[in-house]
Specification:
The protein is an all-alpha fold. It is 65% helix and 0% strand. The protein has four helices and no strands. Helix 1 packs across helix 2, helix 2 packs across helix 3 and helix 3 runs antiparallel to helix 4. The longest helix has 20 residues. The N and C termini lie far apart (36 Å).
């Protein structure tokens, strides 16, 4: 499991049976918070960015399963890709 999502997926909010739902909700809250603080770009919605990050996570897992990346390399690539996707470290857009 990618390290970026490990802690979020380990907690299930009240009323939710699926830990993946918990992870998705937690990740979206993180993205929203980053957008509020100006650390993440606000061009795209938090829901869109969350889904895109989850797609990257699936791709990272597939690459590990296929033997094309080590788990460590997949995790670092996922983290870097997700931060770029969210616009972390870039100048805010107007």
């Amino acid at each position: 499991m990618p390290f970026l999502l490990a802690s979020a997926l380990s907690r299930t909010p009240p009323g939710s049976e699926d830990p993946h739902d918990a992870g998705t909700a937690q990740l979206e809250r993180i993205v929203r918070r980053g957008q509020r603080t100006g650390d993440f770009d606000r061009t795209f919605s938090a829901a869109w960015l969350t889904d895109a990050i989850l797609g990257l996570a699936r791709t990272a897992a597939e690459q590990v399963a296929a033997g094309r990346l080590t788990a460590r390399k997949a995790a670092t690539t996922l983290q870097a890709s997700a931060l770029r996707l969210c616009g972390a470290g870039e100048e805010p857009t107007a």
